[in-house]
């Protein structure tokens, strides 16, 4: 089943929660969610767009089983109220910022009004969202990025959780806009090798290993992210003598 829910950033900073953790514990309400359901999140004013695609990884969680994100509540008076009832764990699959997901375009394709609460998706609206909620620049995953504790991705792409900054279409777009699409390690240019088929294709790598990033860290799209080809990207996520190698170290290996 596919769902559409809404998020109000004036009450709860869901953007930072996804950025810092890659998942969010969400109030289930009256929705009859099942594990592996897909949930799209519509962000209210000022975005007024669907920006997140998640998978339901756990359901019927008590408040004692969830991550307590009191610091992310803008309206602190709502925090204790939010602890009542059951929760579900939503793990982020993809994040985009596209005009195709705007309220206006969603209404043109079958949505009746701005989302409030939860709504099941089906028919033309679901087809429109599924066909336009994608990132053509990076659909590949690597074995060493597998989250072995997660079963929720079976039947979707495998049990994979990619670095949340590398996964973000917004981050990739800003990185590529600045650095271009040439691999910064081996200089591979997909457009030269594959013509129009390879035009615009590249992966984006986060230079600082994610486990070294603090909770309050804010990504710098110019200094922290670089475009790399899939082969170099995979090598950057492998370990040599127990440590991930740096971009400069991989360059030396490529050039020797």
From TrEMBL:
Superkingdom of the source species: Bacteria
Spans traversing the lipid bilayer: none
Molecular-function GO term, any one: endonuclease activity
Pfam families: HNH
Name the UniProt record assigns to this protein: HNH endonuclease
Residue ranges constituting the HNH domain according to the UniProt record: 183-238
Alphabetized InterPro entries for the sequence: HNH
Native source species: Flavobacterium pallidum
Hydrolase keyword on record: yes
Keyword line: Endonuclease, Hydrolase, Nuclease
């Amino acid at each position: 089943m596919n769902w559409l829910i809404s998020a109000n950033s004036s009450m709860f900073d869901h953007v930072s929660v996804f950025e810092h953790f890659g998942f969010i514990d969400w109030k289930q309400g009256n929705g009859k969610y099942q594990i592996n359901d897909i949930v799209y999140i519509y962000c209210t004013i000022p975005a007024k767009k669907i920006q997140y695609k998640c998978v339901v990884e756990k359901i019927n969680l008590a408040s004692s089983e969830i991550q307590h994100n009191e610091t992310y509540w803008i309206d602190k008076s709502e925090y204790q109220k939010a602890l009542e009832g059951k929760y579900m764990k939503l793990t982020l699959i993809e994040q985009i910022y596209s005009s195709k997901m705007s309220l206006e375009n969603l209404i043109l394709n079958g949505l009746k009004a701005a989302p409030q609460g939860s709504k099941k998706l089906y028919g033309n609206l679901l087809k429109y969202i599924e066909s336009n909620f994608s990132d053509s620049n990076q659909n590949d995953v690597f074995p060493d990025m597998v989250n072995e504790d997660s079963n929720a991705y079976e039947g979707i792409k495998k049990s994979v959780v990619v670095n949340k900054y590398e996964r973000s279409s917004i981050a990739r777009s800003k990185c590529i806009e600045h650095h271009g699409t040439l691999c910064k390690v081996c200089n591979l240019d997909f457009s030269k090798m594959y013509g129009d088929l390879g035009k615009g294709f590249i992966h984006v790598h986060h230079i600082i290993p994610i486990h070294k990033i603090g909770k309050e860290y804010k990504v710098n799209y110019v200094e922290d992210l670089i475009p790399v080809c899939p082969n170099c990207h995979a090598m950057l996520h492998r370990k040599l003598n127990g440590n991930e190698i740096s971009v400069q170290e991989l360059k030396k290996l490529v050039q020797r």
